Amino acid sequence: MDAIILQILNGLDKGSAYALIALGLTLIFGTLGVVNFAHGALFMIGAFCAVLLSRILSMSYTTIDETRTDFLGNPMQVNVPYAYDFFGEAAGQTIIEWAVPLAILFAIPIMILIGVAMERGLIKHFYKRPHADQILVTFGLAIVLQEIIKYYFGANPIPTPAPPAFTGSFDFGALLGFDANQILYPYWRLVYFIFAAIIIGAVFAFLQFTTFGMVVRAGMADRETVGLLGINIDKRFTIMFGLAAAVAGLAGVMYGPIYSPNYHMGMDFLVLSFVVVVVGGMGSLPGAVAAGFLLGILESFASMREVINIIPGINQIIIYLVAIIILLARPRGLMGRKGVMED
């Protein structure tokens, strides 16, 4: 039982990342009809927003500390972060340690601007082009973006630690009546799951209960009719592209302490996220979220040692096997709509 609970927790953690990326992908496809293979790169850029802010907050200058000496008895040179001068040593150190959560505020405007620039500068020219053309151009854009990140940040993963308050593990065993220290799970992974649930809930609430969201949903169902009512639906869809980019970016920001940011992490998640979108049903937001968590949990269970001993390598292909089975039974996916990508 303890192993099952642990794998469910692992699955929710993976599923959170899949669901957030797939949610943004589905928003873009549902509004603009664009198959955006650059969406994984947006996830990567979000992770590097946290890296960049951490480096900015950690910028320091060198000074002489008369109270400390080296082995020769000479005063030592020490690096003092500028944050200490601006906020005081205690507050400055706290701000540096909380760089990842603070990067949420840093990343939102950056990701929205990048998303709008992508849509206005490139993707709008491919709305009426075949999906194959959209895939090629957005995939090429993803490669360009990852090479830019590689140039400025290097090829090696960059550790991005969580705040000290969230280091260590939570004892689920004690909470559920098991022996102490039997089911331990990292605090930050729990934070990531809660964060993902909040973002997903906020996106659905925005689309369901705001006038802007209602117009967007109407435009997703019948774009031409909404346009005939005098509503500039193209402008609203551009804003939604920016918001979808922000969702992917925030997913990357908070995933940094779990998966050290590197230039190819977007590609690592992109293919799996597209499988999630297809399994959930192209254009279906609830389907994308449900499929993300479903496939995350299945992948987690397939990674158990007992399962791998019986079927070696099953953890590498389980998502694709499940996708094949679901699509054979339901060609439109779990919650796909008739007519979507069927022309």
Automatic annotation (TrEMBL):
Q: Where found?
A: Cell membrane
From what superkingdom does this record's organism come? Bacteria
Q: Which GO terms describe its cellular component?
A: plasma membrane
Parts of the chain that traverse the membrane: 16-35, 42-64, 95-114, 190-216, 237-258, 270-295, 307-329
Provide the GO biological process annotations. amino acid transport
Q: Which Pfam families match?
A: BPD_transp_2 (PF02653)
A molecular function annotated in GO for this UniProt entry is: transmembrane transporter activity
Alphabetized, the UniProt keywords read:
Amino-acid transport, Cell membrane, Membrane, Transmembrane, Transmembrane helix, Transport
User: What is this entry's stated membrane topology?
Assistant: Multi-pass membrane protein
Q: Does the keyword Transmembrane helix apply?
A: yes
**Which family does the similarity line name?**
Belongs to the binding-protein-dependent transport system permease family. LivHM subfamily.
Q: In its UniProt entry, what is this protein called?
A: Amino acid/amide ABC transporter membrane protein 1, HAAT family
User: Which source organism?
Assistant: Citreimonas salinaria
